[in-house]
Amino acid sequence: MNAPDKTFLVVGVGNLYRCDDAVGIHIARNLNDRKTEYMIVKEQSGEGTSLMEAWEDYSHVLIVDAVSSGSPAGSVHRLDASKTIPSKFFSCSTHNFGVAEAIELSRTLNQLPEHLKLYGIEGKNFEPGELLSPEVELTVEKVADEIFQYITSIS
Predict the structure, then answer these.
(1) Separation of alpha carbons 148 and 145, rounded Å
(2) Which of 11, 20, 52, 147 has its Cβ near the most Cβ atoms within 10 Å?
(3) Span 99-152, pLDDT tens digits
């Protein structure tokens, strides 16, 4: 199945039971409530091969995930994955083959989506639990609004 050229795939990555690691899922759910014909929203655990399969038919992909780079909690990092991405951002992943590795393997195999953007939300707490830290909670609506406006302005 090939997606229409201007259809955006938004992938919310995370684990609902590791506090701030769930922020990508929360943002995906927020966006899913406002779905348009130009946006498909999926939730993923962050396992690399599943991500590669999810984006294979799309030329416009946005991935939202928690990151850990040492920046203040709640900081939003916007990265263009057509360039090299710092793998240290995704060190909070429980997968040996996660987001960064899937992107780099796709790049090597010449299977990277033409437009791949990453929204990394700086996490604070990745311990077991179901609550986002207050700093991260504040970003959910803001990032969802930004992504929705970006998609609707282009489509």
Answers:
(1) 5
(2) 20
(3) 888 888 888 888 888 899 999 999 999 999 999 999 999 999 999 999 999 999
Q: What is the DSSP letter of 18?
A: B
Write phi, then psi, for 23 (nearest 5 degrees). Answer: -60, -35
For β-strands 76-80 and 115-122, DSSP reports them as: antiparallel
Q: What tokens does 51 get?
A: 């991500």
Q: Do 24 and 121 touch, CB atoms closer than 8 A? A: yes
The tokens for 127 are 């311990």
Protein fold of 8-154: Rossmann fold (3.40.50)
CB of 24 within 8 A of CB of 12? yes
Q: What is the dihedral of CA 130, 61, 146, 40, to 10 degrees?
A: -70
Listed as own residue / partner, the contacts of 106-113 with beta carbons closer than 8 Å and 24 or more positions apart are 106/52, 106/55, 111/52, 111/56, 112/81, 112/82, 113/9, 113/55, 113/58, 113/59, 113/60, 113/61
Q: CB 130: neighbour CB atoms within 10 A?
A: 9
